[in-house]
Amino acid sequence: MALGKYSRVDNNNNNNNNNRKSSGYCSSVTVVVFVGLCLVGIWMLISSSNVSVGDEPALEKKTQLQDKVAPVTSDNSDSSNTSQFEENPGDLPDDATKGDTNVSLAENDGKGNLNTQSDSEESKEKPDSDEKDKKSEKSNEKSESDGKYDKSDSDDGEKKQDKNSSETNGDQGDGQIEKVDQNDNNELDKGSDEANDGVQEKNQSLTDVFPSVAQFEFLNETTTQTGSFSTQASESTAEKESQLSFKKYSWKVCNSTAGPDYIPCLDNLEAIRHLHSTKHYEHRERHCPEEPPTCLVPLPEGYKLPIEWPKSREKIWYYNVPHTKLAQIKGHQNWVKVTGEYLTFPGGGTQFKHGALHYIDFIEESVPDVAWGKQTRVILDVGCGVASFGGFLFDRNVVAMSFAPKDEHEAQVQFALERGIPAVSSVMGTKRLPYPGRVFDVVHCARCRVPWRIEGGKLLLELNRVLRPGGFFVWSATPIYQNKAEDVEIWEAMVELTKSMCWELVNKTSKDAVNGVAVAAFRKPTSNECYEQRTKQEPPLCPQSDDPNAAWNVPLQACMHKAPVDSAERGSHWPEQWPARLEKSPYWLSSSQVGVYGKAAPEDFTADNEHWKRVVTKSYVNGMGISWSYVRNVMDMNAVYGGFAAALKDMDLWVMNVVPIDSPDTLPIIYERGLFGMYHDWCESFSTYPRSYDLLHADHLFSKVKKRCNLVAVVAEVDRILRPEGRLIVRDNVEIINELENMLKSMQWEVRMTYSKDKEGLLCVQKSMWRPKEVETIKYAIA
């Protein structure tokens, strides 16, 4: 029993031992597996740590990549970008294009030459220099995504800047419109561990894509550019600026009886209704409102860009000047006809139905001393109609200041301007014409319906004032060649009046075989001998106190000014023949006189002439992206000596030189050069139709005008007289440039170029077709 007992016990022990062995084996396996897993985990952790931390070659390659990318911005200035603007009083420096960051010159051609483009807000905002070291990672991301390393188009390492920061900078330091940042070629400090650690991870992918130095040149060649695509940043910035401008300037469309043809100083119907008399054409004279309008004149429905010269001399778009009354009245005289979508001009007129050129040559044959284009350069055409006479005088190197009233002959001056022929809306009424005395070589009147003989010949005496001594008055009206009682009476009165004025009747022709008209030519004396020998002092001589050059709102006087006798006095000699007279300083400018810019007058004149030659040639003609073949009607709003117009003499265009009434009276010099122009007060509207000019030029005008005028009204007037897609070039101080730029942007004008340095600025903008939706009724202009 004992054995049995113990046998049972032994068997149990064996089983227990076996269980213990099995359990220990499992535990050992578990431990081994656990340890193995731990080792694998540790190995994986160690391997991972080595990959993320220990790749020193990758950092080296990243640094090499930065070396390749950063220097892409060139420090070299292209010499072709210099001397765009000359260093003269109120002018811009030689390196005008250097550092110009405005997007209107935005994209370069890859050779360092700046070209214009339409997007004026493509500038990219760069981080400040103190942020570059702290945020170099973001800087690298920006460089990769934008790809705008501005290779050779960044002079002296200057980079393009966002417009907002540019305008902010314009109020600081040198007063620049755009902030110009110097490019930091050491954007990442290679000796800084902080910089290396901060950019390492972001550049890892670049190392993978470009694993060898041989690939970095490929990177240079394939860096992305924005090309023709704008960026969201620039679009958003531009929109925010536009919204701010709209809030500041609230433009409306003018509602007046004249509609698209509104001329504020000639369409003041309320003032005209209160006139005491219209006997002397007072209702055709200027009656400017006390507060000039600040609204924008609407466009005619169907308006198109004008036809180019010289085709425009023969035809214009009907919808640009949609008036047919004149065609109905004067069509048989070949003034104007309606031909489909065009208004056509056969080149005729009341006195030259079969063409102006034959008529022009007939005058020269009758009076050889006229010598078109040589002896005679600048003429005044009174009662010009559609100005075909002046339009064809261009073929003889003669420029004509043509004028006619805004009367029942619907839009005759507007037809002339649309054709590309100089003309203004004016009338011989109660005031002097806005020209200096003794400036026109010839005064012409072809059946202009002016009652010369009334009131002591007051109107003819006004022509005597502006006619140069020795100049001709050419008249071709019916009293010269018709025998009707009225015509005979008028002719006899005219002969008597001109004789008392000491005018010589040089020739009275017989009828021309082609046009069936005759011409009478009178010549103004060059001395006072005849005046002194008159038995009857009628018309009387003007008192010495009467200035013949005083012409702005001066009442007409029935008197004559003496001929100048001093050889140094203007008008005592005939000017040089054209074109020599253009370049030569007038003989009557003395070295004892101080010129506009502070030098002796002759030296001042010469310096101004050379200055504008350089500016026009180096900047305006080739540096602004202006298609000059589309430019015909030009106005210099502050002409001084006429240097701007003289510099454009070889182009197929004409320039209206305006001398503001509060500026030095240099208009006689302009006429002496063989150019023309008139006086004007820019606080009032100009006597021209809307959409008259292709290009306006204003050199330091607006800063002066702002002192006494409402600048918003002046800008509205600029908008009125400039054609859609026409250009405005402004040179002025930087504050005015900034103000004008914001104002014109609010009118949806396109900024083509801006530049500033040393508190002087340049702005070139292009008018758009945009018109506001809100309307403002001009009560005094409603019939």
Descriptive key words:
783 residues; alpha/beta; Rossmann fold; seven-stranded mixed sheet; 24 helices; elongated; methyltransferase activity; membrane; signal-anchor; glycoprotein
Describe the structure in your own words:
There is one protein chain. With about 775 residues, the protein is of the alpha/beta class. Among the domains are: about 350-420 and about 440-535, Rossmann fold (3-Layer(aba) Sandwich), CATH 3.40.50.150; about 580-775, 3-Layer(aba) Sandwich (Rossmann fold), CATH 3.40.50. Helices cover about 35% and strands about 15% of the residues. The protein is built from 24 helices and 21 strands. A seven-stranded mixed β-sheet has the order 9-8-7-10-11-13-12, sandwiched between helices. Helix 2 packs across helix 6, helix 4 packs parallel to helix 6 and helix 8 crosses helix 24. Residues about 1-25 and about 45-225 have low confidence and may be disordered. It holds the Pfam family Methyltransf_29. This is Methyltransferase PMT26. It is found in: Endomembrane system. It is a single-pass type II membrane protein.
CATH superfamily of one domain: Vaccinia Virus protein VP39
Biggest β-sheet: strands ordered side by side in the sheet: 9-8-7-10-11-13-12
The level of helicity is 25-40%
Instruction: Enumerate how many helices there are, as a single number.
Output: 24
Uncertain ranges: 1-23, 47-226
Structural class of the secondary elements? alpha/beta
Radius of gyration over all CA atoms, rounded: 40 Å
CATH architecture heading of one domain:
3-Layer(aba) Sandwich
- The name CATH uses for the topology of one domain is Rossmann fold
> What's the shape?
elongated
Mean pLDDT: 78
CATH class of one domain: Alpha Beta
Distance between the termini: 147 Å
Name the beta content range: 5-15%
The main pleated sheet reads as: 7 strands, mixed
Q: Could you tell me the number of beta strands?
A: 21
Organism: Hibiscus syriacus
Family: Belongs to the methyltransferase superfamily.
GO molecular function: methyltransferase activity
Keywords: Glycoprotein, Membrane, Methyltransferase, Signal-anchor, Transferase, Transmembrane, Transmembrane helix
